[in-house]
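go over whats below:
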Amino acid sequence: MSLRRIIKKLEVPHDGGTVPSRWINNDIRPIEKERRTWNFWAFHNLWVLTNTNISTYMVGSSMIALGLTWWQAIIAIIVGAIISASFIIFNSLPGAYYHLGFPVLNRYVWGMYGSSFVIYNRILLSLVWYSVQAWIGGRCVYVCLEAIWPNLEDRIPNHIHATGLTTATFMTYIIFSVISLPLIYIRPHKLKKLLWAGVVSIFVFFFVVLVWALATMEGFGSIITSRPAIQDRSTGWSICYAIISAIGGISAGILNQADYARFARRPRSAWYGQLAAAAPYSIISSVIGILVTAATQRRYGEPIWSLPDLMIAMMHDGGSRSRAAGFFAGVAMIISQWGINIPGNALSGGFDLAATFPTFINIRRGAYITALLSSVVNPWQLLATASTFLQVLSSYSVFLGPMIGLMISSYYVVNRQKIKVDDLYVGNRSSIYWYSYGVNWRAPVAWAMGVWPSMPGFVSAVNSGVTVSIGWTRLYYVSFLVGTTISALTFSALHYFFPAPCIKDYLLQAPPRRVVQAQFTAKWDGEEVTHYFDRPKEDQVAVEQFPRDV
């Protein structure tokens, strides 16, 4: 078989649909009506799983391990959740109205070629988060096996001492990764049953764990009345650091929320679902982590911030009943990890890889590539201690915050919510989003302006050998808000003082945004399109009265 035929065989099949090219395939084109199946409950359940899971639990519990009191940690969680939910809603609406995913939307922000920078960063983030969640999932498998065969470490000899791991823990990580592979095959618009299963299992489990912790530990003990381990003027900044860590844990979801919002039946389905679930369940999950860690701290002699480790300690401290409870706890946690890791990380990586190599990769292939490459991240290092875990979360904010600021300011301020969708799939000068050689130079400039203030503190945080002044450290503590604000203002200012001629001309002649959105939806759904400028002047007013959710 010739090389040309082999390459042809590797191309994404289109089965009469969109012929794959450098800029489009069936998975990154606008979502047609038949695949827009996500209602309020689908978005509600997505965010229940995104925020009610083991990693969110660990965000709250790790704050206790670092020395904050229970009420200081709860304040940080509530503020972080409210800020996160606001950004989630704002950054999802372009996808909900135009049915476009994160990689394509960034073409009007960064340019046709410039968007690759953001996509590559998001692919890397998908690899990191998939590996982290898979490692946590492996710990859940470990809980199940430990319940069946106690003292698992003694039963399985350790042959990998040099890695800092044990053979048993690495084996359970591999088991979880393998049993996750069949679920990746499910198409995104058919994930609702998996979401429901994850929601039910994690809710029941969290409730039982909280009741167990409070009942068997006689409440919170001295934790409620004890003074914080941090008792100087830096307490406020420690709370700020905890807030940004809470935001950092969901910043990847904020960045690519359009990947899911584009499946909404109506924009309000996404809006209401996110509003009802994004903040409340994040607060509930993290507060449960805080309360359980506080309640069990005295019994085990230290705050056990990792939920699987707490279940293992419970089984070692009890008898056969504890092991039975531990087994079912492990099963519930495994289902929960599937619910967050498959749509949140595997498919996100699939979306981005499909946009980067649309001729050869679709969402399904990209998701499997994400899963297979994720192990190179060494997730066991990222979850070694509570301080390392929070440091990883907060470091994301340094780079993702400015990207989110660019997306929001570009859609609402620069483009006034009017997107010429057809031009997002044209890779030459005829596209109004071509800018300069396919790159909108204003975007990298604004992004760099948002990143640099946090860099000294970031370098000091990841390298203990580097010391910076307290001012830089505290600026790093609020990196997400600083980076988002500076990048958004800089990007808007650059477009105001140095406007892109094609964008400016299009916005001057384009009809109101609701008309633009309605015409676009009708065209890509294969319905009859009546153009705004083709109507008599007296009819144009009527055209503007489109329903809000089209």
